[in-house]
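Handout, section B. The chain below has 220 residues.
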Amino acid sequence: MDRLQASARKMPEAKPFGLLMFTRYPEPRRTKTRLIPHLGAEGAATLQRQMTEHVLTQVTAAAQRLPLAVEVHFAGGGVDQMQNWLGDTVTYVAQSAGDLGDRLIAAFSQSFALGRPGAIAIGSDCPALGADHLASALQALERVDVAIGPATDGGYYLIGLRQLEPALFQAIDWGTERVLEQTLAVATAQGLTVELLAPLTDVDNPEDLPQWERIVGGNC
């Protein structure tokens, strides 16, 4: 038994999945622009800051018990500004150029280049996302090629892959209600198996704000 235990201790641990959190440095007039008419430029930037902090707290706590390596993929600002804002306990990666699809391809490519068995991308605008949703995504990726968390606006709040699938992020009408539909159509055309997670709401528009207020108030 002692020899078996010693042998087990010498076995290398499996690498964690990448948890790629996309966000933007909270500069007024450069973030949450659809909410500026309702909240003002400063208010929209404050909401971006608060939601990013909330979601990052959720995922870093989840990473304490799930095999996840958290990375913050940011636009705007610099690494020093991000560290001053969110601390130095996670890895920061500047988003690449291009549309969201280009940036997702680059982020997944970088993650898989590290030899990870899979990766999950999320945004910072779905404050209801928690450890249970991430655990469900990891479990789904044991069975299928792609795990997707549908957003109630027709997009998705999470997408997880076991290997790089660039076609899923090409020719997609980002920011529209057709994103999920188009992504599923591409997955079918590519012969990929997909599992959908529980739907959640992104906070992008004024009508979404009550959900954030419920979460902040501890009622969700």
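Note. Confidence is low (pLDDT under 50) at residues 1-12. Compare this with the example in section A.
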